[in-house]
Amino acid sequence: MKLVEQVISLALFAWLTEWNPLSLLKWLSQPGKVLKAGAGLRKISCFGVNPHIVWEVTRRCNLRCRHCHAFGGEPSKELSTEEARELIQKLKETGIKTFVFSGGEPLLRKDIFTLISDATEKDFNIFIATNGTLITTEVARKLNEYDVGVVIGIDALRAEIHDELRGSRGAWKAMMRGIENCLRYDTYLHFNIVASRMNFEEVPGIIDFGNKIGVFSYFIYNFVPLGRGAEMAENVLTHDEFCRLLQILANKQRHSSGIIIPVAAPEYFAFLLMRKGVRRDFVLRFIGNFISGCLAAQCGMLYIKPDADIWRCPFLPDSSMGNALNLRIHTRIHTHIRSQRHSACAACIYRYVCGGCAALAGHETADELCRCALRRMRAQLTH
Question: pTM of the prediction?
Answer without folding.
Answer: 0.92
